[in-house]
Design a protein that fits this description.
The complex is a heterodimer of chains A (246) and B (329).
Chain A (H helix, E strand, L loop, with lengths): L2 E10 L2 E11 L4 E5 L6 H9 L6 E6 L2 E2 L5 H7 L1 E3 L12 H9 L6 H14 L15 H13 L5 E5 L7 H16 L3 E5 L3 H7 L2 E6 L2 E6 L1 H4 L3 H8 L1 H9 L3
Parallel strand pairs in A: 3-8, 3-9, 6-7, 7-8
Antiparallel strand pairs in A: 1-2, 1-4, 4-5, 9-10
Helix pairs in contact in A: 3-4, 3-5, 4-5, 9-10
Chain B lengths: L1 H20 L6 H27 L8 H18 L3 H23 L5 H19 L10 E2 L16 H22 L2 H11 L1 H6 L4 H27 L1 E2 L1 H5 L1 H14 L6 H20 L3 H19 L3 H14 L9
Antiparallel strand pairs in B: 1-2
Helix pairs in contact in B: 2-6, 2-9, 2-11, 2-12, 3-4, 3-9, 4-9, 7-9, 11-12, 11-13, 12-13
């Protein structure tokens, strides 16, 4: 197992945002985390990424206990993450943004620059390398976020709504990009609202609702699970559906 | 790029020749003294720039490092009649230890809270020193009145100081230039732009900030020592007062914080302005310094937070009628 999270909980004050979430990811998988707003998937994601310390449970990455390790230690071990709001270093150039990531494994400037350029080519930003990152729009920033984290050479990539806010054609491009990244041997855990994305990318999904995991399995099976339908649409939907003519 | 190189060379040549160029003018000694003061302000502000500019951790308590650099050399002379120069490395050591001790808790604070904490610590140190007899309490301590040799670094003319300061500034700017292009420099700018994102990319945020503060403190202590060599005297207000810290912040911000030559440009504008107000208005000039600083803060915050360098870039772009190239990906 590359990543093992066992019964991870996290509370904020008296509010239990996440209780007993477990996830095991094999090397080479793409796993999706889905669920309605406030279901705890982002909390779970941030616990795995090292941004939040869990209140309970245990997280191991490639045999190393990372439950309470700092975010930078996660990066060092090979867990990379993107942000829902891309957190671009706006004042830096696009190349420099990616070089910050590349410096993790390449201490010499020339090597870091070469690595960064490689990642910019992969994400299609190479022709804008010298420009200020602040000029990028949302799709560009999401690409830059991916280029930046790939430059740290992660073995596990955590994508936090990397495709939210994109137009349908941009989504198709982004799906292609994620496939290409996966093809280079990187394991991916993806949080996503857009079902289309999850269905076409993930082989396995974990469904969250009210801080718990309510279903797990192949995306096609999970979307037909009554509990999942209820979580997304409420029980009125079930009754109405039952009454509706076939 | 080449234009920039020419500008830098012209600036370097100007600084190198300045004392000779003004030596035949009326009031040459005064002008040379202003030159030395200018370079000293540039050194302090450049030292501040490492942590305040590049790393974006706006310390308003750098007087504590400046004071350590100023007091220690004079103290070793006062106690044991050692040449003040011997106190320089000791002053640096005290400043670095102080930076580590103060930075470890305060660098956990964000934004204004960090600035406020540094003000509080620096003021505390000033008050303690003002009441500490070993350090001359509120009167301060003095260095050698008459040079026993060159190594006392006590000269009548400002010119030797001018060139010593210029040498130190050159070393500091070269070190900063190398830092800018190194991994450490990239990490500092990433921290300034967003700590959370920086950490996610493997930047050891707290350690990097602490190293930046220590490095900045070391060079600020050098500036303090140079001040003590030149003046031969320091008191709590001149060595540890809040104005000392504020001057570093304003000088760097005026030119352009987080840019290599920003503090130097800030000093070139600010110091002559200060000297002019001080000599026109005599003893009442100190109050005017505050007004000047306040005015500069106001103008910078309102119109050009990037400082004069960014302002110049904007003006040039308007002059060349070249719109900013903005592609959206």
């Amino acid at each position: 197992m590359l990543l093992e999270a066992e019964q991870v909980s996290r509370s904020f004050g008296g509010f239990l945002a996440l209780s007993d979430a477990s996830l095991a990811v094999e090397a080479g998988e793409i796993v999706g985390l889905i669920g309605p707003n406030g279901a705890g998937k982002s909390t779970f994601f941030n616990c795995i990424a090292g941004d939040l310390a869990p209140s309970g449970g245990r997280i191991r990455f490639d045999g190393v206990d990372v439950t309470y390790a700092a975010a930078e230690r996660h990066a060092e071990l090979g867990i990379g993450r993107t942000f829902q709001v891309p957190a671009t270093f706006e004042e830096l150039s696009i190349l420099d943004n990616v070089m910050v990531g590349a410096f993790l494994r390449h201490h010499r400037r020339a090597d870091a620059e070469a690595k960064a350029m490689e990642m910019l080519r992969l994400t299609g930003l190479d022709r804008m390398a010298g420009q200020r990152a602040g000029i990028l729009g949302t799709p560009g920033r999401k690409r830059l976020g991916i280029a930046r984290v790939l430059a740290t050479e992660p073995r596990l990539l955590l994508l936090d709504e990397a495709l939210a806010g994109l137009t349908p054609s941009e989504i198709q491009q982004a799906i292609e990009l994620v496939r290409r990244i996966h093809a280079t041997g990187i394991t991916i855990v993806i949080v996503e609202h857009i079902m289309e994305v999850i269905l076409s990318l993930a082989a396995r999904v974990l469904v969250f609702n009210q801080g718990r995991t309510i279903a797990q399995g192949k995306p096609q099976d999970v979307v037909n699970d009554p509990k999942v339908i209820e979580a997304y649409l409420g029980h009125h939907h079930k009754r109405r559906r039952a009454r509706a003519p076939a | 790029m080449t234009q920039r190189r020419i500008a830098s060379l012209a600036l370097a040549a100007g600084l190198l020749l300045y004392p000779l160029l003004v030596s035949d003018l009326n009031g040459a000694a005064f002008l040379q003294d202003v030159g030395a003061t200018l370079l000293l302000a540039a050194i302090s502000a450049s030292a501040w720039n490492i942590v305040g500019g590049y790393a974006g951790q706006v310390s308003v308590g750098h007087a504590m490092f400046f004071g350590a650099g100023a007091y220690v050399p004079l103290l070793v002379f006062d106690l044991w009649q050692w040449p003040p120069l011997v106190g320089l490395p000791l002053g640096i050591a005290v400043a670095v230890l102080l930076a580590l001790a103060v930075g470890t808790p305060t660098l956990r604070l964000q934004g204004h809270y960090f600035s406020m904490a540094t003000i509080a610590v620096a003021e505390l140190i000033r008050i303690v020193v003002s009441n500490w007899d070993l350090l001359g309490a509120s009167i301060g301590i003095q260095g050698p009145a008459i040079a026993r040799g060159w190594w006392d670094l006590t000269f009548r003319s400002s010119v030797p100081y001018y060139y010593i300061f210029l040498g130190v500034l050159a070393v500091l700017l070269y070190a900063t230039y190398r830092m800018e292009r190194s991994r450490f420099g990239y990490y500092l700018r990433a921290i300034r732009a967003g700590e959370r994102a920086a950490a996610s990319l493997g930047v050891p945020v707290r350690h990097t900030k602490l190293m930046a503060l220590a490095m900045s403190a070391a060079f600020t202590a050098v500036a303090g020592s140079l001040y003590a060599f030149k003046l031969g005297y320091v008191n709590p207000e001149a060595g540890l007062g809040i104005l000392v810290s504020v001057q570093m912040v304003i000088t760097a911000a005026l030119g352009g914080a987080g840019r290599l030559t920003g503090p130097l440009i800030g000093a070139i504008v600010l110091v002559p302005l200060q000297s002019a107000t001080n000599s026109w208005f005599g003893g009442s000039g100190t109050g005017l310094t505050y007004i000047l600083y306040g005015g500069i803060i106001l103008l910078l915050a309102r119109f050009e937070p990037g400082g004069l360098i960014v302002l110049w870039q904007h003006l040039r772009r308007i002059g060349a009628r070249k719109p900013e190239v903005a592609h959206a990906a």
